[in-house]
Hints:
The chain is mainly alpha-helical. Helices cover 63% and strands 5% of the residues.
Amino acid sequence: MIPRYSRPDMVAIWSPETRFRIWFEIEAHACDALAELGVIPKSAAETIWEKGGNATFDVARIDEIERETKHDVIAFLTHLAEIVGPDARFVHQGMTSSDVLDTCFNVQLVRAADILLADIDALLAALKRRAFEHRDTITIGRSHAIHAEPTTFGVKLAQAYAEFERNRKRLELAREEVATCAISGAVGTFANIEPAVEEHVAEAMGLKPEPVSTQVIPRDRHAMFFATLAVIASSIERLATEVRHLQRTEVLEAEEYFSAGQKGSSAMPHKRNPVLTENLTGLARIVRSHALPAMENVALWHERDISHSSVERMIGPDATVTLDFALARLTGVVDKLVVYPENMLANLNKFRGLVHSQRILLALTQAGVSREDAYKLVQRNAMKVWEQGKDFLEELLADADVRAALSEDEIREKFDLGYHTKHVETTFRRVFGEA
């Protein structure tokens, strides 16, 4: 997590100040529940909130204590006692460190998910606007990076919209799955703290009680969360890669916005490079790299160990901060993407009608020619275009075998671009649910 690829709201979730504030709230809410149960005095719970609720926790002081205790939660509790006074002895009654750490981590992940969901909403809005703008902008579809058949640029963007809409649903589910709380004490038996305390803390923190915490919240939940982030990152890279290809000089059907005063190269003043989408490709790799250690964290020893701890201290902030930045950057790319319909049409026509080969093939089969023979007839004329620069329509019209099956009008009719876009409205209605 470095400032270059960070945005302040997401960074704040992972700051020590936020972490200690969440730790305090967990402990204080637990005290409220313990007071209701008569385990601790209600006056003590009130004092803890009164003195700790408005306190500014001294990160440097907590770090100083931890250097001696070698235990982060104990260091925090020691500092809290300095603030609260004698009633601090009622804090952490029957609890274990994982109750605080795991519940806090899930609160942070939920808050991070909320920011990411808002990021996706902004991206979806940009994709939808640009998709409708270019719904009827004809372009060539490619398979294996080779010209295939015509489509529209709006359909390309509609595909991205549908993909990120699926990602939003995945993230909603991942958020729900990770939104659990554990206040169950050593090895998760509730021996020294009542389940009612966990239920109270969970409700107060916007979580649900973990059914079986075994002292730690099961890490399959977190594995699913980070795997979801990885899938979203892959979708970012997919769209970024499309833009990178379309911006190539030989293609130039779309390109990133190039602002006034921007420089593309330290050596070549003419350069306008796809730096944002190349950056997004790299950031996607970082986010994906965090999915594997999250999955490896699932296999902890017995009721608990802390082999997951060091991993999560890094991947929690890094994955969410990086993905937040990447989604915002991609939204900016889509929003300002420069599109060249004239170049799209010119590229489509570059090979003089070859993109209509399938229509001719189908017409020949419907006219009684076997598929094998029809394929040979179309391909031999197509190869003349590839190898000799011929015009596909003219070659077909001059081919006696083709003309034996199809009239001139039937052949010419198969070169209508509108044929390929007649179902764009259906696609848009399926994706956007509107006319």
